[in-house]
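Consider the tokenized backbone below.
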């Protein structure tokens, strides 16, 4: 959770700096965001390719059921995002689905949406996906109690492979760690592709 608060603090510091700087100073040319985006995608690829747990999970006999978990998380998240779009008339269905397709990966999804749809949607993606991670960290015991041991993995989305993994293991059990890692890695890799697919549909 400390990492999430650091990210949020940096974001708020950026807003403050933007308000205090003279309007003639520009520190965020568009091509800088493209460089950051490319670097993020590179490190996502390195993380997936170098994760031994991912390849171990892929070799398990029960990998068909394991593969269904991230698929169901995608379906559930996008259905929930569509419902939000119905409740918020000022947000289009496409934008709501694109925000939801961040699956908790706030750093990548916010950069992608800022680059393609503007700063407002980028900020919404940052806050929505950061909230998803914090909710997983705070509500994990209640999720397990009322919805079962897979619930924190589904709620964590892409973060189930890293920042929310310790809390998932603590309340769901060590036997669910491989499922969490697999689901988190698949969703992390899917984020840029799904966002671009949704925005270009």
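A designed sequence for it:
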């Amino acid at each position: 959770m400390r990492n999430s608060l650091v990210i949020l603090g940096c974001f708020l510091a950026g807003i403050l700096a933007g308000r205090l700087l003279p309007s003639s100073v520009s520190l965020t040319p568009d091509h800088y965001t493209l460089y950051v985006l490319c670097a993020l995608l590179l490190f996502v690829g390195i993380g997936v390719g170098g994760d031994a747990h991912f390849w171990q999970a892929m070799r398990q006999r029960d990998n068909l059921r394991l593969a269904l978990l991230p698929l169901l998380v995608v379906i559930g998240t996008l259905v929930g995002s569509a419902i939000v779009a119905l409740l918020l008339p000022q947000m289009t269905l496409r934008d709501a689905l694109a925000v939801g397709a961040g699956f908790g990966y706030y750093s990548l999804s916010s950069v992608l949406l800022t680059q393609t749809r503007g700063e407002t949607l980028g900020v919404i993606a940052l806050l929505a996906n950061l909230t998803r991670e914090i909710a997983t960290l705070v509500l994990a015991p209640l999720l397990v109690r009322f919805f079962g041991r897979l619930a924190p993995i589904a709620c964590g989305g892409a973060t189930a492979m890293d920042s929310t993994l310790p809390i998932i293991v603590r309340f769901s059990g060590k036997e669910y760690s491989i499922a969490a890692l697999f689901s988190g890695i698949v969703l992390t890799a899917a984020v840029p592709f799904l966002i671009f697919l949704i925005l270009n549909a």
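The mean pLDDT is 82.
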